[in-house]
Design brief:
The protein is α+β, with helices and mostly antiparallel strands. It folds into 4 domains: 60 residues, no CATH class; 86 residues, Elongation Factor Tu (Ef-tu), domain 3 (Beta Barrel); 72 residues; 85 residues, no CATH class. Helices cover 32% and strands 29% of the residues. The protein contains 9 helices and 16 strands. It has a 6-stranded antiparallel beta sheet, with no helix packed on it. Strands 9-10-11 form a 3-stranded mixed beta sheet, with helices on one face. Helix 7 links the parallel strand 10 and strand 11. Helix 2 crosses helix 3. The longest helix is centred in the first third of the chain and has 25 residues. The radius of gyration is 28 Å and the shape is extended. The model has no long low-confidence stretch (mean pLDDT 88).
């Protein structure tokens, strides 16, 4: 019987072909150097290709039965059947945009889905309408054109009205619901593991974490303060989602937790406080690779922010490492000037202000 290690190691077509030739030789077929394209060679190569495809399928099925090795659709199936969990899908960024109408223009009776606003290629469409009078403002909810964190634009930057109205300007001034990307395999596996904690008595810290993460797709970070933060018998569940959390997400987590907590537990559920951290650096890049380095630095810093837990210590060395892409020769980090230790209810949000030098 094959071992698990053998089940997880597929043979490719060449390995299968070599094995088939070896078997044929033991059966009295001496030649193993048939001419490419000959009938004998073609038949055995087709057989080897089919067996190699079955090997790959066998490996995928085997890996799909274990939480540590399942990936993609196999992990989705395992998560639902074994843990009653569905992967979080990408969501739309929803923000409030405020229209300002100059005196002498309007009024405008704006209909739902009439306006498009945003910045560059990132466009948002209004979900509701309203009346915009001369010399007044009107705030409406807008939704991103597509899903994902690429549409998580900074407040005050969405100032382009792609469907212009004479005398009207626009800006985004509030996040209603921050977008998320499709949950990665690693994060989905972690939520599956946390399900075991829900079976314990007394509600462990991991159980609170599991309830909160599954309450709303926009919740991506949870910290449980279980050392009586507000006095004897108290426990706090601190939430965060990249880009901020809407009140609906916090309310959903609170409702889920209050329903499941022990009767005698005094539990408070609230969002973490964002701490803006200015990242100022002079980055020297090899000549001809500026665009790639800029993209890699932004992605690296974003990945670091995503990985930092609530209440983390933000190390300068970690920031420098995040900015050091393949085409970067040197990173001179001026801000932050020292490592930063956040409180237990704070979460880091970076503002990136680089200077680029090609060398």
């Amino acid at each position: 019987m094959p071992t698990l290690e053998q089940l997880l190691q597929p043979r490719n077509q060449q390995q299968v072909l070599a094995r088939l030739l070896a078997i044929l030789q033991t059966k009295g077929y001496g030649p193993n150097d048939w001419i490419a394209g000959s009938e004998q060679r073609t038949l055995i190569e087709l057989h080897a290709e089919g067996m190699a495809e079955l090997e790959a399928l066998r490996v995928a099925i085997t890996r799909g039965g274990y939480l540590d090795t399942a990936e993609g659709a196999f992990l989705d199936l395992l998560g639902f059947n074994a843990y009653s969990l569905l992967r979080k899908e990408a969501t739309f960024e929803r923000q409030r945009f405020t229209l300002t109408c100059l005196s002498g223009f309007g009024p405008y009776n704006i209909q739902a889905n009439q306006l498009w606003a945003g910045i560059g290629d990132l466009r948002f469409n209004n979900l509701v309408g309203g009346l915009l009078n001369p010399g007044s403002t009107l705030s409406l909810e807008f939704r991103a054109e597509s899903t994902g964190t690429a549409y998580r634009i900074a407040l005050g930057t969405g100032t382009t009205l792609f469907t212009p109205l004479p005398g009207v300007t626009i800006t985004n001034d509030q996040v209603i619901e921050a977008a998320i990307n499709r949950e990665t395999d690693a994060l989905f596996r972690e939520r599956c593991r946390l399900r075991w904690a829900e079976l314990g008595y007394g509600s462990t810290a991991a159980a609170y974490q599991s309830w909160a993460l599954s309450a709303d797709p926009s919740i991506t970070k949870v910290r449980v303060l279980d050392q009586n933060p507000r006095g004897q018998g108290t426990l706090d569940v601190v939430l965060w989602g990249e880009g901020g959390l809407g009140g609906a997400a916090v309310a959903a987590a609170n409702a889920s937790i209050q329903q499941r907590k022990p009767l005698t537990a005094n539990v408070a559920v609230y969002a973490a406080s964002a701490v803006g951290i200015s990242v100022t650096a002079t980055i020297r890049v090899r000549s001809g690779f500026l665009a790639q380095a800029q993209s890699q630095a932004a992605a690296g810093l974003s990945a670091l922010q995503l990985a930092l837990p609530i209440g983390a210590t933000v190390f300068r060395s970690a920031i420098i490492e995040a900015l050091f892409g393949p085409h970067v020769a040197d990173v001179a980090l001026s801000q932050p000037a020292a490592d930063l230790t956040l409180t237990s209810i704070q979460v880091a949000q970076f503002t990136f202000s680089p200077s680029w030098l090609e060398v």
